[in-house]
Amino acid sequence: MKKIGVKKIGFLSFGHWSDEPASQARSAQDTLLQSIELAVAAEELGADGAYFRVHHYARQLASPFPLLAAVGARTQRIEIGTAVIDMRYENPLYMAEDAGAADLISQGRLQLGISRGSPEQVIEGWRYFGYTPAEEESDADMARRHAEVFLNVIEGHGFARPNPRPMFPNPPGLLRIEPHSPGLRERIWWGAASNDTARWAAQLGMHLQSSTLKTDENGKPFHVQQAEQIRAYREAWAAAGHEREPRVSVSRSIFPLMDDRDRMYFGRGGKEADQIGFIEETRSIFGRGYTAEPDRLIEELREDEAIAEADTLLLTVPNQLGVDYNAHVIEAVLSHVAPALGWR
User: Fold this and answer.
1) Domain count, the chain
2) Is the pTM of this model over 0.85?
3) 113: which of 97, 210, 259, 298 lies 20 to 30 Å off by Cα?
């Protein structure tokens, strides 16, 4: 088994908000502004990435590009990304403009995770956005079609016939989407739930994002199945002949119990084992969380085969507990867990 030691470590926020008394994110504005502040804090702590999940029709982060651009303007070094954008809802050309602008603002730090997406709050919610699968096409097929168009246009090649009498002078030849950000095409990731979609992503030259949810393909423990998926992805990447190195991220809920506050929030555990469920009639396996004192946490994480295979680890954070607490969790992992495991 190929093991990758030193890792990029970032956070992943779903950006929940609610008006519950215990929530420090009571509104969409709270969540957006706190997301920016957490990215700034994570960069100061030495973390490598600030990633955000996208869900529509929910009290969660939805439109990612204003947030990504704002984070890019407030930070200098940290990678900025999504995990993931649901491509069933996206106009690929307009998305290419937004992504190009956000990447230029961050000076080339965008790591954009895209995917078919997960079940949403609304039945076939993408129809309200104006998108309908073609005849004999599933919504997953539509998402992959949107993704392929997006990948093509961010290459920067001209494809649109110019107006012979434009308002402003055009460069010669066919026109491309502007603003164009060179190098963005090499920083697109695909969130894959199955081994087949991981192989498809490799063929198209996308990096792999594998979260704590996967299609249950053989009944093995989650981390073992995920490690198998990563190896299948890397084999497909090598077979495709790409010259650059692929990247792989996994996400985990990891909470070192450092003080009474940690023990109050997470000391009772409850998610220390894999779970099986069904998503749209597909049997899926949900990975466990990790909560313990650092010494015990280190031993448990040492046995996680998928983390060992990945070069990037995203820590899922409970954003409603506020910026200060989540910065504390990130610092605890970076300082008290990562070095002992060789991640730092």
Assistant:
1) 1
2) yes
3) 298
Of the candidates 33, 110, 97, 37, the one whose C-alpha atom is nearest the C-alpha of residue 69 is 110
Radius of gyration of the chain (CA): 20
Instruction: Name the residue with tokens 């393909």.
Output: 217
Half-sphere exposure of 66 (CA within 13 A, CB side): 6
The Cα–Cα gap between 181 and 223 comes to 36
Tell me what pLDDT residue 1 has. Answer: 47
Domain ranges, residue 82: 8-341
Residue 2 lies in a domain: no
231: domain CATH number is 3.20.20.30
Q: With contact defined as beta carbons under 8 Å apart, do 88 and 139 qualify?
A: yes
Listed in order, strand segments (DSSP E) in the chain are 8-13, 49-52, 79-86, 110-115, 188-191, 207-210, 213-215, 248-252, 254-256, 275-279, 282-286, 290-292, 312-317
Kindly list the averaged pLDDT for each block of 10 residues, start to end, along the chain of length 344: 82 96 96 98 98 97 97 98 97 98 98 92 96 96 98 97 94 96 98 96 97 90 96 98 97 97 88 83 90 97 97 98 98 98 95
Report d(CA 286, CA 172) in Å as an integer: 52
